[in-house]
Design brief:
The complex is a heterotrimer of chains A (about 100), B (about 550) and C (about 325).
Chain A lengths: L3 E7 L12 E4 L5 E8 L6 E7 L5 H15 L4 E8 L3 H16 L2
Parallel strand pairs in A: 4-5
Antiparallel strand pairs in A: 1-4, 2-3, 3-5
Chain B lengths: L11 H13 L8 E2 L4 H8 L5 E4 L8 H7 L10 E4 L6 H8 L3 E6 L6 H10 L3 E5 L2 H8 L7 E9 L5 E2 L7 H9 L4 E9 L15 E4 L19 H18 L3 E4 L3 H16 L9 E3 L7 H5 L5 E3 L8 H5 L17 H10 L3 E4 L3 E3 L4 E2 L12 H4 L11 H8 L5 H4 L8 E5 L11 E2 L3 H8 L16 E4 L2 E4 L6 H10 L5 H4 L3 H9 L3 E2 L1 H4 L16 H7 L14
Parallel strand pairs in B: 1-9, 2-3, 2-6, 3-4, 4-5, 6-8, 8-9, 10-11, 10-13, 11-12, 13-16, 14-17, 16-18
Antiparallel strand pairs in B: 6-7, 14-15, 18-19, 19-20
Helix pairs in contact in B: 1-2, 8-9
Chain C lengths: L3 H5 L8 H8 L6 E3 L9 H6 L9 E8 L2 E8 L10 H24 L10 E6 L9 H18 L5 E5 L8 H7 L3 E5 L9 H8 L9 H8 L1 H7 L4 E3 L3 H12 L6 H4 L5 H17 L4 H7 L5 H4 L4 H7 L6
Parallel strand pairs in C: 3-4, 4-5, 5-6, 6-7
Antiparallel strand pairs in C: 1-2, 2-3
The chains are: A alpha+beta (about 100), B alpha/beta (about 550), C alpha/beta (about 325).
């Protein structure tokens, strides 16, 4: 019954973006999530930790975060997510909002 | 000449009706009025076992008192009725089958009772004629499904028995005309009996008996969407629709579905729509109920004409104060009419846009689930290409011109096509995928012994799919393979979407068959609630200058 | 987070707890205490397999409005209805405690401080009270907050702001009542037992919680303003709430005694007169009381634009 924790690393070839300051965004409402984005020296990789009450979507999470990382060319960042059943569309929305805030884009 | 001619009777229907009304005459007083306490007895006098009976009630007003009384008749006398009616949203509509009073059902929309319909079919309590669209069912009222007795509802009757159906006229004229002019019997429940009606919607000589019901009829504010509940994802989809479809095709004649996406579009018209320069070029003529979320666009001068299927609670005064836009009577109040609105919806629209629960890999879509016989009401008539349409409009022609496959069907003959748009988030509630390998409608067909899976919109009618991934312009696809590829490309992380091939998607984008928000120049970061012209019901009241009077359940001040 | 300037005209009703906290204070002055990066989330929810939030649904911090140091607590209704558990409760208690300690230190060091230079506490309520998942800890937190409110009395004014979606109910309704001043918008609701619970216990005939018009005219900002249960009714923007706080913050602490609804023999007398009036009137609806207060057309009060309402409404005096 405990919460599910999912941890993984992603690395893409051409990292061009990192972030300077840590960002927090989102509220863990129903169907929503929050994310912490923190700069971290990871040799260009992105480390991800997701805590969610919903089990069985590990592959989906990886694919969605992978898409986010590959479109933003993000590296050297630690992402930490508290989820409450957010859909992939909402996950991408929040991650993109967080990235925009972190990079001023 | 046959000598039998003199013996042949040609007025058996009216004779039968006269006989039944004679049996009921002791309950009917001046002005065709009868007492509420005599209702069951009156129904027992005018209805016979096996009759075809209509209970009025669509998704808004309901002849609920008469329905309750029908459920109390002596079932040893009255049984095996064949119910022909638009919708079965009230529990009592299904209780009639549970109790053996009714046997067969022909309808269009199940609403909250959809699960019981499926169960009763399986248990043999209910024999399903067919699930229709409203227009289809109305058509059959005038051909092979004419009711013998119809139980209808109106706001007011006068002392002669004339009826005022006003704002919520809805299905009444259609039912009454079919029933009365085929020598049937029409019984009306009204909220009040007055000396003078605001106007006569149904003349007294088309009505046989009138009762003032103990409670006003039940009516559901089904088309009120609280702007407070519109999400950022829906706003993004609405922006895509406005830029990628409304602006691209300059669509003027539109029906909006009931969901939150179309509410979001309505609330973006005075903001994002204005910015796109669409005012006067899109959304000028609408077939829709008086959606409260249309108020900001109407007030901003977007809309020329709105014709309504039915009314919407709380919008009475607002509509009456905007007779340039709405169809109102000499008395100043709206007259809705579902049959005419659906006719316009079928023939005169350039676009139908709405949502759905599931879309399969071919583009067929349905709101049916495995255990609910819901029906689709009017959506299929609007969500299809009207094959009988012969007038042209720019938007309709443009969609046709973009179709590479048209010449394979009609050679070099030009023809247009209606825009049929489904806007969905790739995952719905509880992370249920909207794009699926096979619709649940197949399971339903099996569970409820239906002839075919109930499909709301068939893939060949669907021209555009909008998701958070972008827009698939299915009308630009040459064949079913291309359509399936385009659907995959916007299906996100669903199993269908995961089958998309990056190369294929790139080619589709290059060909303008698929456009992402970036391709369309839609800035995702602007998909924010601050873009809504009204962000709560209170704002709508303010926009309306205090004319909109929202129902109690929507008030948060 | 939107820019501070954009936050000012943002709907208070729609703003999340952090936006309210930041926007209520002067630009750039907010420092969060035990914020999301400190990851003080609920250990109880984690064990139960329920979603957690890094700040446990409660934003605490300190900043300034003009010359006034402001300690702010802001509850997040979208996270489990803004309910108070162990972590959020502790953050609330300790923010008030910190304000009192800061006050004591400040006045010892600088005995000549003006009223507006002394600290205040602002609580932006959005809660139904105790978080049922961690009920004992949540109840204890309520008691400790009450204790801190008593300790703050006559030193650090505590100002309640209520204009968020969930309203302020349950144990936190008691807490709000025990503050020094209450500012509401027409979208705010204040009560003890929530509408759904009243319906569940007493039946739909007694109180139909789905009739939101009824719920709001019984617990909402306009009604509370007429009844004197809140001190100010403001527009639904962060700026409007901020302005109300700024006005209050400049008052001498003794002035707050006049704004309180409970906590003195005079206030108790007044409450008792209200009870007597209710017994005499047997009102069937809040509108009966509005009429009694001297409003000839109570029905019109609900939809009237706010400015017009404030200019013309008669408040109940007992």
């Amino acid at each position: 019954m405990a919460l599910n924790t999912l941890e993984f690393h992603l690395k893409i070839d051409e990292v061009t973006h990192s972030i300077d300051t840590p960002i927090h965004l989102g509220v863990v409402g129903s169907g929503d999530m929050e994310v912490l984005m923190e700069p971290k020296e990871l040799e260009g990789a992105v480390s991800v930790r997701i805590v969610t009450p919903v089990a069985g979507f590990d592959e989906l999470w990886k694919r969605v975060v992978e898409k986010f990382v590959s479109e933003t060319l993000l590296g050297n960042v630690h992402l930490e997510i508290n989820d409450n059943n957010a859909t992939p569309a909402v996950v991408l929305l929040r991650l993109r909002q967080g990235f925009a805030e972190a990079t001023g884009k | 000449m046959s000598t039998n001619t003199t013996e042949k009777k040609w007025d058996r229907r009216s004779a039968d009706t006269a006989e039944r009304l004679a049996a009921a005459s002791r309950y009917i007083g001046p002005g065709k009025q009868f007492k509420p306490e005599d209702t069951v007895a009156l129904l027992e006098a005018v209805i016979h076992a096996g009759d075809r009976v209509n209970i009025e009630g669509n998704n808004q007003k309901q002849a609920d008192f008469l329905a309750e009384c029908l459920n109390k008749v002596d079932r040893s006398k009255i049984h095996d009725l064949h119910m022909v009616q638009s919708a079965v949203p009230l529990p009592v509509h299904l209780d009639l089958f549970e109790n053996g009073i009714a046997k067969k059902l022909d309808f269009a929309f199940g609403g909250p009772q959809a699960a019981r319909v499926a169960t009763f079919i399986r248990e043999g309590k209910l024999e399903l004629g067919a699930i229709h669209t409203y227009l289809e069912l109305f058509g059959r009222y005038f051909l092979d499904l004419t009711p013998k007795v119809s139980l209808i509802c109106a706001y007011k009757a006068d002392r002669q028995g004339n009826l005022y159906t006003g704002f919520n006229t809805e299905d009444t004229p259609t039912i009454v005309e079919a029933t009365k002019f085929r020598q049937g019997i029409v019984i009306a429940q009204v909220n009040e009996i007055v000396d003078k009606l605001p106007r006569v919607d149904i003349p007294a000589d088309w009505i046989d008996a009138v009762v003032q019901s103990p409670q006003p009829f039940f009516i559901e504010p089904l088309f009120t969407r609280d702007p407070a509940l519109v999400t950022e994802s829906q706003i993004l989809l609405a922006m895509l629709c406005l830029k990628g479809i409304y602006a691209e095709y300059e669509v003027k004649r539109i029906n909006h579905g009931i969901g939150f996406l179309t509410s979001a579009i309505e609330l973006l018209l005075p903001t994002y729509g204005e910015e796109l320069g669409l005012k006067g070029k899109a959304c000028t003529h609408m077939i829709l109920n008086p959606h409260p979320t249309m108020i900001p666009a109407i007030e901003s001068g977007w809309v020329d004409t709105i014709h309504c299927f039915g009314g919407e609670l709380g919008m009475e005064k607002y509509v009456a104060a905007r007779p340039d836009v709405f169809f109102t009577g000499p008395d100043g109040t709206l007259r809705s009419n579902r049959a005419y609105a659906q006719t316009a919806g079928h023939y005169a629209l350039d676009m139908f846009i709405g949502g759905t629960l599931q879309i399969d890999k071919y583009g067929n879509s349905s709101t049916a689930t495995g255990t609910r016989v819901a029906g689709f009401g009017g959506a299929p008539n609007m969500g299809c290409d009207a094959k009988g349409r012969r007038h042209s409009t720019d938007a309709w022609l443009k969609v046709g011109k973009e179709m590479p496959s048209l010449d394979r069907q009609i050679g070099n003959m030009p023809r247009g096509k209606r825009l049929v748009v489904q806007g969905v988030e790739t995952f719905g509630e509880g992370r249920a995928p909207v794009f699926v390998e096979e619709l649940d409608a197949w399971k339903l067909a099996e569970n409820a012994n239906l002839d075919l899976p109930p499909v709301m919109i068939y893939g060949d009618d669907l021209t555009h799919v909008v998701t958070e991934e972008g827009i698939a312009y299915l009308n630009r696809c040459a064949d079913i393979d291309a359509r399936m590829a385009a659907i995959r490309a916007v299906a996100g992380y669903t199993d269908i979407g995961l089958q998309a091939k990056p190369d294929e998607t790139r080619q589709l984008r290059e060909a303008g068959i698929v456009k992402t928000p970036e391709d369309l120049g839609v800035d995702r970061s602007r998909a924010d609630r601050s873009l809504l012209a009204a962000r709560n019901i209170r704002d709508l009241v303010t926009w309306s200058g205090g004319l909109y009077n929202p129902p109690a359940r929507f008030r948060n001040w | 987070m939107p820019k501070w300037k954009d936050l000012q005209e943002q709907s208070f009703l729609e703003s999340d707890a952090r936006a309210r906290a930041i926007g209520l204070l002067d630009e750039g002055t907010f420092t969060e205490l035990a914020g999301p990066f400190d990851r003080f989330y609920s250990p109880h929810l984690e064990v139960l397999g329920e979603a957690v939030e890094f700040d446990d649904g409660l934003v605490a911090g300190v900043g300034k409005i003009g010359k006034t140091p402001v300690f702010v607590v802001s509850q997040e209704g979208r996270f489990i209805g803004g309910s108070i558990g162990e972590v959020g409760g502790a953050k609330m208690v300790n923010t008030i405690r910190l304000a009192i300690e800061f006050h004591d230190e400040l006045v010892t060091k600088y005995p000549d401080l003006s009223d507006e230079e002394k600290p205040v506490v602002v609580i932006s309520f959005e809660t139904g009270g105790v978080r049922l998942h961690e009920s004992n800890a949540g109840l204890l937190a309520h008691a400790e907050v009450m204790d801190q409110l008593q300790k703050a009395r006559h030193k650090v004014p505590v100002i309640a702001l209520i204009g968020s979606k969930v309203g302020c109910f349950g144990g936190m309704g008691f807490v709000a009542a025990a503050t020094d001043a209450i500012v509401m918008s027409e979208f705010g609701r204040l009560g003890l037992t929530g509408p759904e619970v009243i319906e569940q216990e007493m039946g739909k005939e007694e109180f139909d919680s789905s009739d939101r018009a009824l719920v709001f005219r019984t617990t909402g900002g306009r009604h509370k303003y007429i009844m004197g249960d809140c001190n100010a009714l403001v527009a639904n923007t962060i700026a409007a709430f901020r302005e109300a706080v700024a006005e209050l913050a400049a008052l001498p602490v003794a002035e707050f005694e006049k704004l309180r609804r409970i906590g003195s023999p005079e206030a108790v007398e007044r409450q008792l007169r209200g009870v007597a009036l209710a017994a005499e009137m047997q009102p069937k609806d809040a509108r009966d009381v509005w009429a009694k207060a001297g409003n000839p057309d109570p029905v019109a009060l609900t939809d009237m634009p706010l400015g017009e309402f404030l200019a013309g409404v008669k408040r109940l005096s007992v």
